[in-house]
Specification:
Length: about 160
């Protein structure tokens, strides 16, 4: 019975992974409802051996997509990875690696693109100031935030922000 339970669980895991990538923790959580812990661990180990389950690749691909395409702050990506059961240390290192690969300036540019879609958003001093502070709080450097944000904001609003600092 154990061998067939293992095979059944392996097939189920394959079906789950065919719908979308999962972290080891996510898949473990789903499979624990179906079999004993030892069988689940063996299935997860086998999937890792086959290269079908890799938390580093999973986290890196997800971090790149969220940073580059979706314009998320690095901390938000880390929180998202934690909800997907990626270990916190691995999540932080992976997000930093993805940020380095994409480039901090590009991530800030895409974030601003997303948050300042309308011309009136860039003309609202409170909104621009709040965005500026959130980017700094998100871990981006002052130099890059200023370089990318300044051209998108009317000079009068930028001057007002600088005078208010």
């Amino acid at each position: 019975m154990e061998g067939s339970t293992y095979d059944q669980l392996l097939r189920i895991a394959g079906k789950i992974l065919s719908s979308r990538p999962h972290s080891r923790g996510e898949l473990k959580q789903k499979l624990q409802k179906l079999a004993e812990e030892d069988t689940v661990r063996r299935v997860l180990d086998r999937l890792q051996e086959l290269g079908l389950l890799n938390d580093e690749n999973f986290a890196y691909n997800l971090a790149c997509r969220r940073l580059a395409r979706d314009g998320w702050l690095p901390d938000k990506v880390c929180q998202f990875l934690a909800r997907r059961h990626v270990e916190a240390g691995l999540a932080r290192v992976t997000v930093d690696r993805a940020l380095a690969a994409i480039g901090e300036r590009e991530v800030v540019r895409r974030l601003l693109e997303r948050r300042l879609r309308s011309a009136e958003a860039a003309e609202d001093p409170r909104r621009v100031s709040r965005l500026y502070r959130s980017l700094l709080a998100g871990g981006f450097t002052v130099e890059i935030v200023r370089d990318v944000l300044k051209p998108r904001v009317p000079p009068a609003i930028w001057q007002e922000m600088e005078d208010g600092e």
